[in-house]
């Protein structure tokens, strides 16, 4: 078997074509890797940091290769499938993800800024917002966080996120809805004009 | 502000893997390819269909349960006379469709003038929230009777999408496109075209730059009457819409809940005034006991818990940001 090590990344073949071919010619799966490794790495890095992202991204493609024979070639784009595998691997690193968001949340409030420096002020604002969002992400149930971040960070549509996670579209919809609400609350879009205590 | 955009922007640009990391990962894959150690794990492709059937049954049982009949062995429901009172899923869906048709007709009776680009959609709602202390301890937890407060949300969206106003800590905050704050808004012109349920359902499924759930659009945008009616009729056609026969008391008004989605243990509802068929709020309720695992803790949900409840108190077109009538 000859392994092709320099593959044409600009191939017009779809992911489904390549994975289908990889069932008979396994080396074709390397093209899938070349196409998508960067994206999977970036997604894992956002959630876990660079170090763990290397492990998760590498493992994603090993798992995907092992499962290539079961890939539904009706799905032309393999991204949802790959992100789904990555999400499962990321879920095993829950503590690391939690630590990361905690660190980001704490970093949000430690900046001192010159009030006359607009650029610095804007940066502090962004850090503060990131801190609040990180805190909210840590509080989300894992199922909701997965859907939210597949949409926000992986750029999947809601339907693609549902396919990635192997859940019904309606389930993805409602999880995304709740997660977005939590984010909006973290961003503080509210005023308490009228407070009442109910008994 | 738009939370998805914020999530994308404030966490910085994508990390790029080092050449060494990429090479290492590629080598590992090539080694796997060479070794021929692949084990075949065929994916189950029909998992989605089985799941939706299971959820549908749970919905039928749960909805019948809230009507006050006894659930026996998850096989159905019986009343005190021993008669089987299981609500037929199709009958519930028909009731929901009928109710939503009435809501659609009521919507079309509203007076309407096409807004100018510089006018604003003003949405005001009163959201029931736990006390601040409780929210801090259990932000994802259910509402606790006796420890709630009402938070008023006021949002102004300019029709042309160029200006966003909101009240924050007692101050009116106004953001302009191109400024430091970025947000996304569904183009009003796109929404205005959705005057049939078919158009709404097609828009719902279509890829787009900015979108929202159908019930979220109803809650966040001021829609022309024909569009609002089309949204109600579209919801009637969507799988999973059920009428909750249990009456809800919302701010002293009797309301009917239209359950839109049920995710195992949660029912998301739109609330309608039962007399006028006007949309007056939304609610999320727990319909089965559930334990949720978060990174920083475990939350227990009990059947009957209310997770969210909001009453819509204004949905009008105004001339200026800050106007409330």
Keyword list:
heterodimer, A: about 200 residues, mainly alpha, globular, disordered C terminus, B: about 325 residues, alpha+beta, nine-stranded antiparallel beta sheet, 9 helices
Question: What does the largest sheet of chain B look like?
Answer: 9 strands, antiparallel
Estimated structural class of chain B:
alpha+beta
* Mean pLDDT figure of chain A: 82
What is the number of helices of chain A?
A: 9
**Basic shape of chain B:** globular
Structure description:
The complex is a heterodimer of chains A (199) and B (325). The N and C termini of chain A lie far apart (75 Å). Chain A is built from nine helices and no strands. By secondary structure, chain A is an all-alpha fold. In chain B, strands 6-5-4-3-13-10-9-8-7 form a nine-stranded antiparallel sheet. At the A-B interface, α2, α3, α5, α6 and α7 of A face α1, α2, α3, β3 and β4 of B.
